[in-house]
Amino acid sequence: MADSMDFGVQILRVFGGLLVVLAILGGAVLALKKFGPYVQRPNVGGTLEVLSRHHLDPRNALLVVRVYEHHFLVGVSPQGLHMLSPLDPPSHEFQREQEIPGGGPGKGGGSGRA
Fold first, then answer.
1. 102 lies in some domain
2. pLDDT tens, 57-103?
């Protein structure tokens, strides 16, 4: 009878230890879910920035990436990342040339008729 009582105590100790381990793991998972986005900051120095992303399909995309003052067109596929082309950074002169002086839509004869 003493053997069956010792066996019951051992089972309770094993399950108690298992519950403690599961509680610690559950707490760690909750902590990572809550604080994980704050821990993973790859862009702390500001050296790499994704400026634009265009999904071609669910598995492939095009990215415009800035590294320091250089811009690149990068392709993303299941096989990996591929630099497709270096890009010229946008200049303020180019942006000013695109503005229509003195008006918005409807001004300046944009209909194409003479």
1. no
2. 999 999 998 888 889 999 999 999 999 999 886 664 444 344 444 54
Quote the DSSP letter at residue 112. Answer: -
Task: Say whether pLDDT at 41 is over 80.
Answer: no
- Taking the C-alpha atoms of residue 51 and residue 67, their distance in angstroms, rounded to an integer, is 10
Q: Distance (Å, rounded) from C-alpha 68 to C-alpha 45?
A: 10
Number of domains in the chain: 2
Q: Is residue 109 part of a domain?
A: no
Q: In whole angstroms, give the CA distance from residue 71 to residue 65.
A: 6
| Structural domain boundaries, residue 55 | 48-97
